[in-house]
Design brief:
Elements (H helix, E strand, L loop, with lengths): L14 E5 L7 H13 L3 E4 L16 H12 L4 E6 L6 H4 L5 H6 L3 E4 L4 H9 L4 E3 L3 H7 L3 H6 L11 E3 L9 E4 L3 E9 H6 L13 E7 L3 H13 L8 E8 L2 E2 L2 E2 L1 H12 L6 E3 L12 E3 L2 E4 L4 E4 L7
Parallel strand pairs: 1-2, 1-3, 3-4, 4-5, 8-9, 9-10, 10-13
Antiparallel strand pairs: 5-14, 6-16, 7-13, 8-15, 11-12, 15-16
Helix pairs in contact: 1-6, 9-10
């Protein structure tokens, strides 16, 4: 992987671009999220394709159009950061129309999660870190919970927390599944996107990495299958450790059973012989702390993840 760029930090008064590489956002949710960004003191510029809708999959324009809308924000010197409108599906099909050299030549803060996981891995291949965090027509439109609000937008402004505690979701506390400490470059995102990226040119480099993953609304057997893909392909054998975020609405024949899910995770991950913990407050529901993808980080084996480097400039 290329040496990482240091991203210019965001300051109030800067212009934040809102991109749509996946589906078009709900107009009311987008408007609410834009108001939230403006409430932080930012100006907002919307990508030209945000309200487009192509007829086949209902995405925010054809792949070329979505890529062009993103590029318009990327190369605009007046846009200091890009926050994505929403996730869903579609980022991967836009990547062939993007140039990693162009992204490297215009390093700027980019923040999103879910389908944006694919873009984060693509950017990191180009030496550009990013943030796994709130999106405009999703988290920001709903309003941030206190933990999420303590990370966004402060992480984008270079004044965010230097560590995060594993707390779990919906009353489920953090738990160490397999003991041990670990240090490595923080990579990860939505599990289904990580599995779908295996063998692609943009998948994360897992060598010595500290991985986090989360997902939502999957049947447990599909979670098991995704993990199997990543394990059987040799990707997880390269990791230093795994931190598991929110696995919301994961069910067994339509019924949630967290303890049974925990047993599935334990059985799948035990053969790796690396530290594994549950309860990273990141994901589709509940707390969604802003995480620096690409930064070196350290897991202490007890409950604290520490960010060892900044990905934004002072």
């Amino acid at each position: 992987m290329a040496n990482l760029a240091r991203l210019p930090r965001l300051v109030p008064g800067d212009t934040v671009g809102v991109a749509a590489l996946s589906g078009p956002p709900d107009p009311a949710a987008l408007a609410a999220g834009v108001r939230a960004l403006e409430g932080f003191g930012y100006r907002v510029k919307i990508a030209p394709n945000v309200h487009s809708k192509e007829p086949l999959l209902g995405l925010a324009g054809a792949a070329e159009e979505r890529a062009a809308g993103y590029r318009a924000l990327l190369v605009d010197p007046g846009v200091k950061a890009i926050v994505f409108a929403r996730g869903g599906y579609g980022v991967a099909s836009a990547l062939p129309y993007l140039d990693p050299a162009e992204a490297a030549a215009h390093p700027k803060i980019q923040c999103g999660f879910s389908d944006v996981t694919v873009l984060s891995s693509w950017l990191l291949k180009a030496g550009v870190p990013s943030f796994h965090g709130p999106m405009v027509a999703a988290d920001l439109a709903r309003g941030l919970d206190p933990l999420s609000a303590s990370f966004f937008p402060s992480m984008l402004e270079g004044r965010g927390p230097k560590e995060i505690f594993l707390e779990g979701e919906e009353g489920r506390g953090g738990a160490v599944l397999f003991p041990g400490s670990a240090t490595g470059r923080l990579v990860g995102g939505c599990l289904s996107l990580l599995a779908a990226s295996v063998g692609t040119p943009w998948e994360f480099d897992y060598s010595g990495a500290l991985l986090f993953f989360e997902d939502i609304a999957e049947e447990a057997y599909r979670i098991d299958r995704m993990l199997g893909t990543l394990i059987d392909s040799g990707r997880f054998a390269k990791l230093s450790g795994i931190l598991i975020g929110a696995l919301s609405a994961v069910t067994f024949s339509g019924v949630e059973d967290f303890e049974r899910l925990r047993s599935v995770l334990t059985a799948r991950l035990a053969p790796l012989g690396i530290p594994v913990a549950l309860g990273l407050p990141a994901g589709h529901r509940g707390p969604n702390a802003t995480l620096p993808v690409g930064a070196r980080a350290a897991w202490d084996g007890a409950g604290t993840l520490t960010f060892l480097e900044e990905i934004v400039s002072p």
